## 1
Amino acid sequence: MDTAQRRARLAVRHRLAHEARTADVVEVVRSLVALHATDPATVFLSTAARGPELTPRHLEEALYDRRELVRLLGMRRTMFVVPTELVPVMQAACADALAVTQHRNYTRLLTKAGVGDGDTAAWLDEVAEETHRALLAAGSATGAQLGKLVPRLATKVDPAPEKAYSKPGPITTWVLVLLGAQGRIVRGRPGGTWAGSQYRWEPIESWLPAGVPAVPLVEARAALLRAWLRAFGPAPLSDLVWWTGWAKRDVTKALAEVDTAEVDLDGTPGLLLADDLEPVPEPEPWAALLPHLDPTPMGWKSRDWYLGPHGPALFDTFGNIGPTVWWNGRIVGGWAQRKDGELAWRLLEDVGGDAEAAITAEAERMRAFYGEVRAVPRFRTPLEKELSS
């Protein structure tokens, strides 16, 4: 399967080609499996890039009114927004293991600080249970409000007393992260604008009245890999290992439950679903401005076929991608929002006049989506910092 076909699949499956775009925000998310949500603005800008008619209000309604989308921790201990029906799969495939790890880490730190009356793990469980009950009673609350309802959340612990920069802080965030990883609470509506990150918390029962249904681990992992291959395949096995954050043996075990086929990707073996071998027709020329941490450029570990030589300008030192300009299935530049709200963009290669006109139109559309909101990326990349100054 050649690069042209991979780019055609990317354009259509990720709803970036004009004929594939939609005003159905939930369908946009389903098309990508999950949206990166470490930075709240990414979720909104990723959907805007794929739905010309979408406004921030459309996503807010899906998240907070109809509750068709949920924020939760998933692959690589990263925050994602997923369709509600995918929550049981993500919980079993990713979050359950993370909850165990976080509980162990927090117990160790609390024990080191002398908290817990001899049974620190049980003490932490009690505080988490009390916090969940308080949130069920309140319906919705900020971390600060929960701290007043559950006095033990004010317990202060210095996580690294041997470090000069470390200082004691309340365990509120630890308990909320733990409850979130356990699938018992979720992030609700933030204060301020849609780009804000000061969330209210709500019990999972607000989204799923009976809680998160249990799914067997291998079944959940297989379902997640199947969804990823439908959206991102074909790809080398190493891409699946990187995207999930699982051990290679766990990916291989889950893949045994998925009907896959192997294809040649310019000399590298690639996997895709066995019923997905028919070629995708090449779409009409398209341009897009994708935000930092967008799920498309962050979907693969091997990126040469769409990134080319532009990585140093567009990634930070931790491997997070900044805002990117796309033309016909490949990255050709970067962009940034300036303080006055204007969008500045720069091409890193010559793409011709038609492409530049299409990119200009996309930049104006995205500028209108922002409105009066100013959203500085949490992860700053070299070109983004230069263009935003």
## 2
Amino acid sequence: MKSNHDQKKPQSAATSSRRKFIGTTAVGGAAAAALAFPMVSTAQTTTNLRFQSTWPAKDIFHEFALDFAKKVNDMTGGELKIEVLPAGAVVPAFGLLDAVSKGTLDGGHGVMGYNYGKQAAIALWTSGPVFGMDANMVLAWHKYGGGRELLEKLYTQIGANVISFLSGPMPTQPLGWFKKPITKPEDLKGLKFRTNGLAIDLFTAMGAAVNALPAGEIVPALDRGLLDGAEFNNASSDRVLGFPDVSKVCMLQSFHQSSEQFDISFNKTKYNGLPAKLKAIIQNASEAASADMSWKAIDRYSTDYRDMAAKDGVKFYKTPDTLLQQQLKIWDDIVAKKGSDNALFKEVEKSQRDFAARAMKWDMDTNNNRRMAYNHYFMKAAPKKG
């Protein structure tokens, strides 16, 4: 009788081959899987960029700068980190362009009108009636109508080593804050007044004694009597900066700055050294921040406008048409003079004019009269008694 041991048959060649195949396949499969799904390194180098705004930390404009930085930081997932400092943290507000150009700062958030002294054409993006266009239409001209190329040409001319992204269309700015209502153009004569950009030339021609001051210095100057009147920008900024504490009269509507927008700038050398992916994120974040800013502005500005009247005792008045018409006439004289000996100024102004002639006609012919709708819903006459 054979033992169980004796009954075991020798391993066949087919079985041995099959086991080798399975083992080899398992090893090969693991290797293939490793090739198909490589391990992702968790190590990551963060590029830090130091930004400064031209705004006090409490101003909503500084908040807009922080909003832009957060969008970039979130979208890059930590690869790029923008740190935003308030005005004066590194350089004064009016020194931002030079600081970014030299690399003292990696970038900044401001307005081009603050750099008016370097080349008057800069202020055409931010000052004046711009042929009736609002700030969003100016941004359309900038991106699709040749403005961006002209700005690059301008920066090259003045030797500014920066790359710029325009963002955030601003509503028409008030004529300003005064001790008493402005009822006619002559009321501006002799007034010590704050503004900036080409609006300096405009108000000077209207008889005011103009002083350009950064945001944080305006209200203290009004309080000490160094200014008789001033404009800054919008209801939220004006309220938080303290304008209602030193004046109760605000004149709405003006052609001195009906089209301003923010300038998000980077040191060109620093920006060009970034990977293509990060540069694309910055560009798209500036446009996302532009849309978000315009939506937030509608909500916040309208709230503060209401509250200044209801809680702070501010009286709002519409600027007289006679003064607005005079602004347009004086503006025509200013741009004609500036363009007579500044070829780039003339080129920018003509480019805006050509775009506005087309865009403004389309806009006015296409869009409804909003005042008519507002009056229908909110200004109905009270029912007669009896």
## 3
Amino acid sequence: MKKILLIEDNNDVRENTSEILELENYEVTTAENGKIGVDKALNNIPDLIICDIMMPVLDGYGVFKSLSNNPKTASIPFIFLTAKSEKADMRKGMNLGADDYLTKPFEEDELLEAIECRIKKNDFLKKEFSKNTEGITQFLNEASEYLNLEALSKNRKQEFYKSKERIFDEGNAAHQLFYIHSGTIKTYRTTESGKEFVTGFFGEGDFIGQLSLLGDSGVYIETASVLEDAEICGIPKADFTKLLYGNKEVSNKFIEMMSHNLIDLQEHLVDMAFATVRQKTAKALLELDAKGMIADKTHTGISIPREDFAGLIGTATETAIRMLTEFKNEGLITVETNRRLVILDKESLKDIAEFG
């Protein structure tokens, strides 16, 4: 049962509104002025607050500011109540950051719709979605409901790709965002001389293709190739656009789900520009380990071609091999017969990555 705090100094309005809400199975707490309302909000955190603006002791603005400055109550949906003659007051309240307002006298349906909308929004924003295919599907379904759209495209079947198959090619029309359910993907760009410049390795839980969809060219800016058999879920560009631009709340949630890929890319570019080859090698090994691509007690690891590893750290293949050999001789890593890397001393690699 959702809890609502109603702060209203007019006794008739307070009692009538409370009765309406209780009949709709809300748990209602009331307060006759702002100071009492703040105390009750802090002692019994509500799911939503309805608050009159003009009140004795502490007005609605004071209530909103006080609760907004407290981490425990800052994110609670807040609806102001205002009289028809107080339009300027209403605008001030919205500028402060309130979620909505109702003009007194209001209709019962108007009140209930406003409450349902704000609680629905807050529940959506607080929800954590799993970084797997089921979680992505749940997010898309709930986002379409939240946006009041017809269901976002159902063409989200997982596709199976074999090793060395390409998911998309540099220069081709960018028509989908891809989510990796399982397997390992390499992305790369081709230089003018025909060499591959590796831009990243990606595994379960990662998105690929988003930068291409965000660009103005309308084409993929890199090629994605399968290193180990993969299951991939495609999200059509039209759905991607709706999620990104259709609503601020949905957009923020969607960006949150994808953002770690973009942060990793930014850090990788900075490393490429300023780190030494020794630092780049250590950071690349730690990054691959974090993605489960280095063999250990829980991961089988993947066989990484040395030219791909060289592309990842932006150096010649010979240099990458020499650096891996140095790390092996120092007892930091070992290389299995199937060319899978194993980290032996992670702490020393972390020191190298940070200090060189």
